[in-house]
Amino acid sequence: MGKRIVVVGAGAIGGYTGGHMARGGEDVTLIDAWPEHVEYIRQHGIQLSGVTPQETHSIKVPALHISDVQRLTRERPVDIAFISVKSYDTEWATHLIKPYLAPDGYLVSLQNCINEERMAAIAGWGKVLGSIVSLLSAELYAPGHVKRTVPVGGAKHTVFRVGETHGRITPRAEEVARLLAHADSSKVTSNLWGERWSKLVVNSMRNGLSSVSGLSGNERDLAEGPRDLSIRLGSLAVRVGQALGFQLEKMQGMEPETLARAGEGSADAKAAIVENLLRISSTRSDEQRPSMAQDIFKGRRTETDFINGFVAARGADIGVPAPLHAKINELVKQVERGAIRPGVQHIANL
């Protein structure tokens, strides 16, 4: 009998990944808090699409509203629970599914930001793995409908990087990598924390900046001013991560040290990073917006405290100031509250 899998949070990433696992024949149940989304999936299946017609699929998969989760007590225990909610919902999602785990069951953080420690505080370190999602931009644009807005990584770029918190390669990490390979290329890493901070660097360059400015991914990276600001944000985040002792990984073609120097005034380094950002823009859909910018558009709470705010806070803790991240975090909160509307004027003097 195959492993019983649940995905807590069937939004853009959870729905896309869980849908593809179900399409691959795995025993998957999606759990989500949006009633219309759950009802659509129950009646019609989850609808996945991408940048090519071949990526369009309609997949039948069981779906539960969070109020239905208690029925799992009468069913086979859960072997693997992917947590794919916003970072601020990590604790309650962990509490929600923990009672239904099998004795050897475990949790996998399939999220932005760094949430493994908060999950472990509830379930125990032995119950927690992490998975970084690298260069998989998607949007839940209607109930039951998820669209991927960047090309499939495949052999050119490994999208999923699965790791144990202690860094050893284990059978269960290999099992999770196999499951995620239904959605795109995957691997097991012995450098979970370095991979996590590397992804945080990329998110901190893009999410808050697009949220405050209202710019799409391509608009942000193709315009010199916003692009330069993005590079400076990335540079600061790299320096904080290095000071914390993380072994940073190459980030979507960008070497960490090159990105850091690019934001510090090196013309050669900046030229290399700009070339890379323009290359990525040439492959990205014009519809692509970072997840935080999607949250602003939908009137939802953002993860800014867990991205730019987190970089600023950790930098302050160790004496490596990142005031630009603190400023972006503050501006995102103003947009989130409705105190200001997104616009490029907010970043013009940064």
Characterization of this structure:
The chain is α/β, with parallel strands linked by helices and 350 residues long. It folds into two domains: 187 residues, Rossmann fold, CATH 3.40.50.720; 152 residues, N-(1-d-carboxylethyl)-l-norvaline Dehydrogenase, domain 2 (Orthogonal Bundle). Helices cover 44% and strands 17% of the residues. The strands form two sheets. Strands 5-2-1-6-7-8-11-12 form an eight-stranded mixed β-sheet, sandwiched between helices. Helix 8 crosses helix 9.
Write a compact overview of the structure shown.
With 350 residues, the chain is an alpha/beta fold.
What would the keywords be for this entry?
350 residues; 4-stranded mixed β-sheet; Rossmann fold; 44% helix; N-(1-d-carboxylethyl)-l-norvaline Dehydrogenase, domain 2; alpha/beta; single chain
Fold topology:
Layout: E1 4-8, H1 12-23, E2 27-32, H2 35-44, E3 46-49, E4 57-59, E5 63-65, E6 78-83, H3 90-97, E7 101-109, H4 116-123, E8 128-133, E9 138-142, E10 145-148, E11 160-164, H5 171-180, E12 186-188, H6 192-213, H7 217-222, H8 224-243, H9 256-263, H10 267-283, H11 291-298, H12 308-318, H13 323-337
Parallel strand pairs: 1-2, 1-6, 2-5, 3-10, 6-7, 7-8, 11-12
Antiparallel strand pairs: 3-4, 8-11, 9-10
